[in-house]
Amino acid sequence: MDEQAFVTLLEHALTPNTEILKAATAALRQDYYSKPASLPALIHVLRSHHNEQVRQLAAVEARSLVGKYWAGSGKKGASIDPQLKVQLRESILQSTIAETNALVRHSSARVISAIAKIDLPAGEWQDLPLFLSQAATSAKSEDREVGVYILYTLLETLEDAVADRSQEFFALFSQTINDPESVTVRLNTLLALGKMAEYLGADQDPQGVAAFKAVLPQMVNVLKHLIDTNDEERANSAFEVFQTLLIVDPALIASHFRDLVQFMMELASAKVVPDDFRTKALSFLMSCLRYKKMKMQSMKFGEPLTLRALEIVTEFQEDSDADDMNPSRTALSLLDYLSASLPPSQVVVPLLKALPEYTASPNPDYRKAAVLALGMCVEGAPDFVATQINFILPTVLGLLADPELKVRQAALHTIARLADDLPVEIGKEHSKLIPAFIGLLDSSDGLDIWKATCNAVDAVFVGIDQDEVRGYLPALMPRLSRMFQQDDLVLKGAAVAAIGSTASSAKDLFMPYFADTMAALLPYVELKHSEQELDLRGIIVDAMTGISESVGREAFTPFVHTLMAAAYEALNLGHPRLKETSFMFFSAMARVYEEDFQPFLEKVAVALFESLDQVETDLGSDDEDDETIQITSVGAPGTNKVAVDGIEIDLTGDGDDEDFDEEDVWDELTAVNAVALEKEVAAEVMGEILSHCKRGYIPYLERTIEILNQKLQHPYEGVRKAAVSTIWRAYVTFWQISEEDGTIGKWSPGLPLAVKPTPELEKFGAMVITSTVNLLKDEHDRSTVTEICRNLAETLKICGPAIISNTDVIEEICSQVQVILKKQHNCQLDLEEEEEELDIQESAEYDWHLIDTAMDLTLGMAAALGPAYSQIFSQFERQIIKYAGSTEHNERSTSVGIIADTIRYMEGGVTPFTQRLMKVLLHRLSDEDPETKSNAAFAIGLLCLKSQDTQEVVKNYAAILGKLEPMLHITHHRMVDNACGCLARMIMGHPEAVPLQDVLPPLATHLPLKEDYEENAPIYEMLVQLYRASSPVVFGITPQLVSIFAQVLSPPEEQLTPETRAQLAELIKFIYQKDSSIIANYPNLIQIASS
User: Fold this and answer.
1) What distance in Å separates the CA atoms of residue 719 and residue 225, rounded to the nearest whole number?
2) Distance between alpha carbon 384 and the CA centroid of its chain, in Å?
3) What is the C-alpha separation between 560 and 569, in angstroms, rounded?
């Protein structure tokens, strides 16, 4: 081997001249790296070359060849002579110790580690650990630095080989972590201890865990020193170690966890500390909420973290880069994370308590911080925030008129966030908000306020009813048009989005503005000359979805072909957001045109399939002997990276570029990239299209199911969630088409199946339920598990029991639901659950949403199985009753509602549970929460009607009546309605047990019902039943009831179901025959009686 020629080629590989570089690369790959002799030659260059960049490249290349030639795993088993290996080991150790350049020294250390990874398990190089220990305790700091660093690299790759020496390492590291001379030694020790933490376990090595706990305070001291000396690069490495400690065996940091969190809180709040360190501390705290949420909650860190974050937000600077995650921006993210992770009592409540002081501050930064913080907490706790809207909204409205522009702008941002998560509640406040928006659009505040106002209009109009929109259109539309005519493209986009939202709410009231709007917008759907133009084009296409659905197919048809062509073109313009909006436009067109969307389907389906088929990662060949990899680019002198076939090789020696193992692949895949986000949208859009263009989509159904079934295993949870939703929408669509065609009949509750699906449906259902249940067992993402439960529940209610006819399937679903209700599912646990029991009484709303949908899944099974569900309900009864006694009102109301609907579906099957349910529901009839009390009235009425345990039911009638009577005097329409419905069901179930003369007249005074029309059915059915039984009490109040009948048989039509309306019509005819004069003053009743 010509060593001089080899060295020359290495030097050429670092030249910026592309032609020389390509020639050198080809020669190295073909003539040198294909031979075992290249490895010793690289090690020789690493030892002796005068140019540190060449030494660096030699180290990186040598490391990549160790696996191929050191153990003879390359072609034909070629390897290095054993005697030469001895020399190479000795020489690389000595040269690494002597190396003066830190980067080269690190790279060389990793070559040693790569060799040791092969040698030590094979029983060779057994003196290496002793040599390194001696180096780590040498009198020379340089030796100590190298010795500890090589030990660190060994720990990275040789877990099994060094695990049994943990006590030796801890004895050494407990000294080196306190090195009096070298901060590098202390940092390298910290890194090494971080690696040891990754495989230490309390069960396998309790002594090692104890030793780690003892040294942890010294590890913190290292980080403190690096912060104090403003050593940013090293401190960043140290912060990464502490991030790692959150995902290892919890026993390692359990006793120090509170102190760690407290330290990071203090660090984040310290204004004298550089921003980067404070931001890192805030990131650590967010990781605590992600990985140690239960522990954070039990230690009640929510309130102090919330108040500290609020204080940090006061530092917010307008001129800071939006992409710059400084402390104030990170603190806002922390507030968002806090509200989603912890219960409102620990986050939103203390924030609301602090608001008055902040909003009354003479410092505008405090007023701005208050309203921004409020906006960040809405998404995580919308239900609780909704209960506080009467306090929150006046505060925000007051800040909307603040003398400081930046406070007004922040208030607009928060109104938009409130409207996004509480559309109905904020929409009700339109009379206060819209005039304020119009005033701001007329102001001279400038672009930022105008943009924020348009964004607020966009969000708020989602929750405003059509009739309420009518009065705002003449004032608002000209102003939005004026905003669109401004030159600023971002303002144009905000105005267009507001116009689209306004059109969606206005529906056909938008028609007078339709022609002018389309004339103004259409020229912009072909923009493509800049990133900002493409952004605007995407917003306009998105607005077209709302406009099209408001004006309908007939009015929109003249524009549809132009817009579809523009959407097709946008798919190939290399702009992810524009591509996603094109997909969403396709779904809107499917909603508008339904089966008439078929002419566009082929092209649209192909685009969606191509999107879902995209490759998201390319890590090179799996064949380690592939010689085709070429260096295709290199940085200018002084840079640390080169690219190999698009893959970056780190010349610092800190990367693992040559080791494309499963961890590298997973890390790349789990990074959420633009392609993954696009796939999520594509999968969702498929669901929309197949649900609205059902028959037209049939030719694409098989391919859809095939590809979505694969995406159930996608690394990004958004894709998995979208795949779950769409694959079940496909099943429901297929089922509905089969029912409509008469291929299958209407399903009936219970097993065995009364109506069997077609063979195709059966095959489809078996595949989908199997994949879904497997995912449900293993899924770690909470929102995906929630989506699974939601889709299974809805499918069972629509399609019946076919998908759970397999015993193994229903048993597994029941098992998983039980685990969720006990908060023990994979997705509900901290990454590593601590052994100690944590006292957790409350749930974050995000956590409760999963439990809520799991309960809804039990209802889906009840709907599908009917009375037979009683055999399964016993598995869930205890947990549901437990939640019915929760300290949280929303948990109580939901659980009692679940009990009510369960009784409704089970009918007589509820009988064995009567005593226990009666006790719970009686107690909840006195609940302080009106929703819980209303649900209890609904549930207990059903129990009285459906249960066959007459003795248990009737003996509680007096108690029930006693609790219902005060409910009839509360000005809460739904509660009154449910109380009336309960009385009706009690009478139908056991009329002899109810004092009709005392109950019917007061009941009649509350009719017709004002809100919960569902309760009309039992009330009028009960009255019909009493008339049939010739009850003198009901005949005695007939004149009063006739007036009620006239009202309830008038609009709105949704007051009565067709069945109830028919029963009532027969009753009117009966009364008319008895005494026609009673209905003489009611023309609508006379018309019914005469029909």
Assistant:
1) 43
2) 19
3) 14
